[in-house]
Amino acid sequence: MASGIEVVEPTETGVLGGLLPAQGRPSKGHFRLALRQQVGDLCRQEATRHAQALQRTRLLLGYSTLTVGGVAALTAIISGRPIAALVVAAWLAAELPGTLLTRDRSALLRAAPPARRGLVVVCAVGVVGVLSSRVGARELLLAVILTAVGAGSRVVVGSDGVRQRLGLDSLCTVIAAGDREGIRPLIEEWDQLPGVVVVGAFVSGPREDDDSIAGVPVFGGLDGIGRFAQRVPISQVVVIPGDTLDTGLLTRLQWDLEDSTAELTVLTPFLDTSPRRIRVTTVGRRSMLRVGTARPRGTSVAAKSAVERVIALLALVVATPVLVLCMLAVRLDSRGPAIFRQTRVREGGRTFRMLKLRTMRTDAEQLQPQLATLNEADGGLFKIKADPRITRVGRVLRRASLDELPQLVNVLKGEMALIGPRPALPSEVVGYDQRDLRRLAVRPGLTGLWQVSGRSNLSWEDTIRLDIDYVDNWSPGRDAAIAFSTLRAVLSRDGAY
Prior knowledge:
Layout: H1 28-33, H2 39-78, H3 82-100, H4 105-109, H5 112-131, H6 137-157, H7 160-166, E1 172-178, H8 180-190, E2 196-203, E3 212-213, E4 216-221, H9 225-231, E5 236-239, H10 247-256, E6 263-266, E7 278-283, E8 286-291, H11 299-333, E9 339-345, E10 351-357, H12 364-367, H13 392-399, H14 407-412, E11 417-419, H15 426-429, E12 445-447, H16 449-452, H17 460-472, H18 476-492
Parallel strand pairs: 1-2, 1-5, 2-4, 5-6, 11-12
Antiparallel strand pairs: 3-4, 7-8, 9-10
């Protein structure tokens, strides 16, 4: 039986003895190929890359902030507006410390922190403006512009290209701690994520020489985590709760990690739960997670419905000429009505007649059993990429997503929402289990997460998962993000057939 932890020191031949690529940047594959003694080398190199990238980003944002502030202040002084220069100074005083002193990479990539700091300056300028006639609308507008500049700079830095050039795409190195049964699914799940790698595990219970879990080496028992983290620079220690983990162990682990670079995190059993729904509360000496509901209720439902109906009405007015031309093309291309009506299931299991431009032959539903062997979808879906039932005009309409324009009428009538789960067929709902029925908690949408995440390319399981994710984590901001992503998906025609 193995005891203690293995000493992880740099190898004599350097990092992985030449296994790394020329640029010396380790990937997840290199961590998997590394010997147990070489994991420390990779962690040290990744920690160095992270520190250097963080410093570059802080300096870049700091110089940018000073440049913008300096130009604004100089312009204000030359224009004879010293109060405006004071506004710039207040913004710099709020923005620079938060930029130059942060050690959190994610804080440098989010627009929210500078937006909050700028909002404080805007409010302060507004209050002073109410109390003093020397502060006017120009100073308030300047504060708003500076706030937008601060938040916008984070959006630019957080973009994929800039983040990669700055080296901010370094891996988050993780040590997993807990029972074997809990560690294995965590490793298998996080192996699919691009930015995180589990480099080792510490387990409760017996261990063997050269022990490993899903290809990840086991370095020792739970009592050795602190000593390992002090010798090897890792990003996080993730604790998987179990019967062998008690409050005393977690408390000692907090103390052991104080002199290391590792953050202590505790895994929760929640899946696909938005962080904004979770609040940490304390009762007595116990910390608890309070999970709020996300499904729109009361005034939220009314507001969402009203806004979407207004948008649908305006969109119908604008799209009417296009819709008329499409209907005419459908009628000229093949025999049958231009509008196809199909029974779908809405919230609460109620049914409605969903409208679409007809893109198939009029006997398409009768022909479906004959094409069952060609079905390329799983679960309750029926999809054929080269479906012979689709008409020539129908194929064009589908590729451009114009066949869904009549659904704006369903939105206007309150039967559908602009954003929501995919409208389900009655034949699908018959086979739903308790989890799948969660899709019917809100109105179906003309677009949704399924639309912007692959559309027809998605599996049945992914479609259900995305719809439940939407229901459980709804927010107005997320609806707006899905709407913008829909435009990009429609223009790219990804998954449309």
